Amino acid sequence: MVSDKDSCYFLGKILRTSGLKGDLFVFLDVDDAQDYAALDSVFVERKGSLVPYFIESIQIRPNGAVIHFEDTDYEAACALVGSALYLPLESLPPLTGNCFYFHEVRGFEVVDAEEGPIGKLREVWDNAAQPLLCIDHPSGKEIMIPLVDDFLLSVDREHKTLHVKAPEGLVEFYLEAD
Known about the structure:
single chain; 178 residues; mainly beta; Elongation Factor Tu (Ef-tu), domain 3; SH3 type barrels; 2 domains; 6-stranded mixed β-sheet
């Protein structure tokens, strides 16, 4: 049973109503929206809690989906606009190789090709330019490394380790900063 956002992943956000019958236009923050064409339910964040909503119909569109929840009229749909949608983590297909979900590698040891172990991965910060690995160095300082293919060497799920090759001087820059 899902009870909190830590056991779920962000699927998207309800942007607006669509028509007058209770349909909602939803932005899906996914690589391929077609993968979600058969959804039967989602969790909607309501006042800080995740509430299950059952899907009566879903139509995938180029930039999202139009969803109609069971027992939802126009007025009820209006109240949902702006709400975030979530799905349970266990519904994600497993990834292999150097592909990973950001939540999957939290707590992994990060090992730089030049510096060796540089700390534990606190989170992957997904900003507009590119994701950043936010690493807690044992000294208490934070190291941030861009998550790009050229810098990520390997993901070792068995040993919970990310092997990276940070740009020259980047690790030292963070460790020497006051």
